[in-house]
Write a structure and sequence with these properties.
Order of helices and strands: HHHEE
Structural class: mainly alpha
GO cellular component, one term: mitochondrion
Mean pLDDT: 70
Family: Belongs to the band 7/mec-2 family.
Protein name: STML2-like C-terminal extension domain-containing protein
InterPro entries: Band7/mec-2_domain (IPR050710), STML2-like_C (IPR032435)
Shape: rod-shaped
GO biological process, one term: mitochondrion organization
């Protein structure tokens, strides 16, 4: 009888020990599961927060760009605004060519890079193509647009034309009175043949 009681105690001890191991394994598994869930939720929140931040940054840039474009648009309507915009485009065009020369890149450029007046003429032509024509049929007056080059020593202003000293480069003509008379401002590249 004593052996039977001893066997019963050992059996209960083994059952209790196995139950304890089982519960410990369950607790460890639940802990790992909770850890994985919390990590994934944290990653999701991180992505959501980053996306919101990027969206706000994009909106802020878009609003700033829109305000800048509105200011530029309003200033081009004013007297001399189109000429200032044309001058800025020409400056940026020349600056871009200067940056190309600094780098060790090879590019095919459809204009003579040594002729500043031809580059300005091309920049102004591109500007004219990109600007919409106003309802009166003209873009704006060109009275105050001034430019000079060392090669041709030409000035562009009211009723003037710039001709490139190199053959085939082109010509830009401005008629300041034409827009007031209902005509159109003339930016053209013409062959010198």
């Amino acid at each position: 009888m004593e052996m039977q009681a001893e066997a019963e105690r050992k059996k209960r001890a083994q059952i209790l020990e196995s139950e304890g191991e089982r519960q410990a394994n369950i607790n460890i598994a639940d802990g790992k599961k909770s850890s994985v869930i919390l990590e994934s939720e944290a990653a999701m929140m991180d992505q959501v927060n980053r996306a919101k931040g990027e969206a706000e940054a994009i909106l802020a840039k878009a609003n700033a760009t829109a305000k800048g474009l509105k200011m530029v648009s309003e200033s081009t309507i004013l007297h001399g605004g189109a000429e200032a915009a044309a001058l800025k485009v020409a400056e940026q065009w020349i600056h871009a060519f200067g940056n190309i020369a600094k780098e060790g890149t090879t590019m095919l450029i459809p204009s003579p890079t040594g002729d500043a007046s031809a580059m300005i003429a091309q920049a102004l032509t591109i500007y004219k193509k990109l600007t919409p024509v106003a309802s009166g049929g003209s873009n704006a007056s060109a009275e105050s647009c001034q430019s000079s080059t060392e090669e041709g020593k030409s000035a562009v202003g009211a009723g003037h034309a710039v001709e490139s000293p190199k053959s085939g480069a082109g010509k830009v003509a401005f008629d300041a009175d034409s827009p007031r008379k209902g005509g159109s401002l003339s930016f053209s590249l013409q062959s010198q043949e």
